[in-house]
């Protein structure tokens, strides 16, 4: 069968690549065309010849209300290109992975044209923009959810769904980065064996621009404190970002603020604590087991609008799974260098506080189910298409 998959950011590329492995395993005749990134492209070339990648998400994903408005023309051109390409490929299923701003429009088009539409990793309509539930019911044949707390919500909203666990567990437990011993990691990145704190500033340029000025100031404050003068702050750069995006924040801080590219899991595993941009990265940090503080900041315009539509009290997926705060969230005006320093110092110094957080992490992992989610979802999709 033929599958057309659309992922628009780093987390979607990760989950898309694991889903593709499952589809190739369940359907030996699978023919896949996709929007994604290097991970999905690698899986494609391991199973098919030719070119499957239509659009690389690194070529300019946007987020936030103001960014979408500014880039509306480019957005519409990509949507038109996508629709034409779907019609040319004529897939048995269009599989949408998160990325709701774009994928809801694709779902409406694909449904109207008679294609089977699967939505993998549900848009977070339970947090904001609940009006989109109507679109899920109208345009999506089957929703594939990844959090246990979503089951009751979508049952109440009468959206047909399938739950087979969370694919992040597979992605993390099988990652070669976590099999690398500390000495090898240090040698590969020309690092000394010192105490380390990770900084995950996000995969988008706008996130880096919002996060890094505060994180750099936080690193300055920590470094100027005698007991933390030997701590190295490792910025885990996403594959979609270049060193140029971080260069303005490194000048004069080269001794204690360093960038490591494309090794986020290894950076987390070798750090005693982490400052993490909200999103999938915070849940990855839970599953890897690094105590963290989540931080988020946006423009005043975007933040004011977001406050009007976001319905949940917490923004981190790990906290939402527990329905309580396992770790602190510093949002917008609370995201300051001083607040970061206070929280990271507590994580480093308070053994009881640290142990309690790690205990909550174990509870989060248990709640997400065991391994094999990606393959189970692929099997469910193939069964749906075969009418079983």
List keywords for this structure.
388 residues; alpha/beta; 7-stranded parallel β-sheet; 6-stranded parallel β-sheet; 18 helices; 49% helix
Question: Describe it for me?
Answer:
The chain is of the alpha/beta class and 388 residues long. The protein is 49% helix and 16% strand. It is globular, with a radius of gyration of 21 Å. 44% of the residues are buried.
Give a quick summary of the entry.
By secondary structure, the chain is of the alpha/beta class. The chain has helices spanning 10-26, 38-47, 65-70, 72-89, 100-112, 133-139, 150-156, 168-173, 182-188, 205-223, 247-250, 264-269, 280-288, 300-309, 317-322, 337-349, 351-367, 373-386; strands spanning 2-7, 31-36, 53-56, 93-97, 116-120, 142-145, 161-163, 196-200, 232-237, 257-261, 273-277, 292-296, 329-331.
Stretches with pLDDT under 50, minimum 5 residues: 62-70
Fraction of residues in helix: 40-55%
Give the DSSP E fraction (strand runs of 2 or more residues).
15-25%
Largest sheet: 7 strands, parallel
What's the N-to-C terminus distance?
15 Å
Q: What coarse outline follows from CA principal-axis ratios?
A: globular
Which structural class fits the helix and strand makeup?
A: alpha/beta
In spatial order, strands of the major sheet run 3-2-1-4-5-6-7
Count of separate DSSP helical elements: 18
Kindly state the number of beta strands.
13
What's the pLDDT, averaged over the residues?
91
Radius of gyration: 21 Å
């Amino acid at each position: 069968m033929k599958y057309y998959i659309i992922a628009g950011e780093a987390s979607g590329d990760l989950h898309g690549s694991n889903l593709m492995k499952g589809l190739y395993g369940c359907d030996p005749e699978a023919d896949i065309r996709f929007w994604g990134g290097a991970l999905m492209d690698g899986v494609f070339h391991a199973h098919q010849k030719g070119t499957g990648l239509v659009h690389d998400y690194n070529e300019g994903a946007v987020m936030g209300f103001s960014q979408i408005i500014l880039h509306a023309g480019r957005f519409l051109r990509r949507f038109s290109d996508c629709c034409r390409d779907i019609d040319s490929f004529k897939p048995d299923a269009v599989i949408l992975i998160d990325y709701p701003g774009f994928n809801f429009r694709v779902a409406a088009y694909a449904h109207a044209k008679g294609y089977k539409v699967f939505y993998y990793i549900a848009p977070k309509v339970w947090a904001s923009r609940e009006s989109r539930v109507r679109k899920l019911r109208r345009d999506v044949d089957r929703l594939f959810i990844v959090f246990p707390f979503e089951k009751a919500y979508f049952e109440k909203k009468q959206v047909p769904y399938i739950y087979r666990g969370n694919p992040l567990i597979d992605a993390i437990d099988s990652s070669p980065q976590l099999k690398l011993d500390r000495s090898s990691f240090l040698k590969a990145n020309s690092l000394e064996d010192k105490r380390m704190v990770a900084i995950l500033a996000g995969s988008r340029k706008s996130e880096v621009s919002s996060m890094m000025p505060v994180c750099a100031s936080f690193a300055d404050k920590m470094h100027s404190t005698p007991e933390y003068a030997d701590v190295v702050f490792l910025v885990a750069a996403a594959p979609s970002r270049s060193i140029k995006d971080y260069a303005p924040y490194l000048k004069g801080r080269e001794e204690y603020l360093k960038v490591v590219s494309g090794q986020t899991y290894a950076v987390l595993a070798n750090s005693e604590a982490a400052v993490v941009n909200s999103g999938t990265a915070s849940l990855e940090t839970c599953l890897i087991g690094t105590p963290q503080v989540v931080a988020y900041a946006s423009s005043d315009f975007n933040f004011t609008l977001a406050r009007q539509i976001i319905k949940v009290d917490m923004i981190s997926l790990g906290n939402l799974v527990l329905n309580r705060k396992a770790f602190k969230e510093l949002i917008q005006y609370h995201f300051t260098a001083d607040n970061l320093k206070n929280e990271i110092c507590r994580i480093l110094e308070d053994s009881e506080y640290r142990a309690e957080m790690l205990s909550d992490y174990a509870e989060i992992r248990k709640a997400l189910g065991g391994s094999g989610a990606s393959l189970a979802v692929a099997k469910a999709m193939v069964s749906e298409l075969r009418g079983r």
